[in-house]
Amino acid sequence: MQSYVAERKKSAAATMSRSSFTPTEYLFKILVIGELGTGKTSIIKRYVHQFFSQHYRATIGVDFALKVLNWDSNSIVRLQLWDIAGQERFGNMTRVYYKDALGAFIVFDVTRPATFDAVVKWKQDLDAKVSQEDGTPIPCVLLANKCDQVKEGMVNSVAKMDEFCKENQFSAWYETSAKENVHIDDAAKTLVAQILKNTAQYKPHSKTKGQILLNQVLSSSDKKTNGNCSC
């Protein structure tokens, strides 16, 4: 009988522990940049909504989307994707748009070599305007988009692309197709993994530049406003 009671107590304690566990929730700001017409909006729509259209209008200024990832049993990652217009590199607003970003995708069109030629300028602009707390560049993944079509230029050589990315401090590069849903999830997982690796140096439940631990924010707000969060 005593053994039975002890087992019941142990089971109840385990159940209570599981029910009271709250995974850490992260909010990461991710930039999606590159020349006009490279498919940035299409990539975001495919990734977030599993939807593709050939009839998007050009983005004016900046647009936003949110993707929620159940990363593992301990973590939920919310990605705030900033879709920045291709012409914005020539404007004065990119510093505002880039502020507090923790990662970025730079997109070019494999059928238009001129969009690849602009990649270095986008990367230089990004690195000049946003960085990690130690001053190093934020993680950035290069997307060679529209790979379902005939490719032109350096993208036809994997070795040359690998060397290009190494020289320009890209975390990785992927051939992608928003139309055929090729490698978009893989690219996002690579970027998120790198961001999480970079933020691992910070103590849990502490707010860092560009990173919000949502369960900490909600907990603090509950104490102040009885659960009414205006985040």
TrEMBL record:
Cellular location(s): Membrane
Top-level lineage group: Eukaryota
Chief localization: membrane
Pfam families in alphabetical order: Ras
PROSITE patterns xref list: RAB (PS51419), RAS (PS51421)
Keyword Nucleotide-binding attached: yes
CDD domains according to UniProt: Rab32_Rab38
The keyword Lipoprotein belongs to this UniProt entry's keyword annotation: yes
Keywords recorded for this protein, A-Z: GTP-binding, Lipoprotein, Membrane, Nucleotide-binding, Prenylation
Membrane topology: Lipid-anchor
An example molecular function term from Gene Ontology annotations: GTPase activity
GO term, biological process aspect, one: endosome to lysosome transport
InterPro entries the UniProt entry points to: P-loop_NTPase, Rab29/Rab38/Rab32, Small_GTP-bd, Small_GTPase
GO CC field: late endosome; lysosome; membrane; phagocytic vesicle; trans-Golgi network
Signal peptide: none
Function as written in the Swiss-Prot or TrEMBL entry: The small GTPases Rab are key regulators in vesicle trafficking.
Family: Belongs to the small GTPase superfamily. Rab family.
Protein name according to UniProt: Ras-related protein Rab
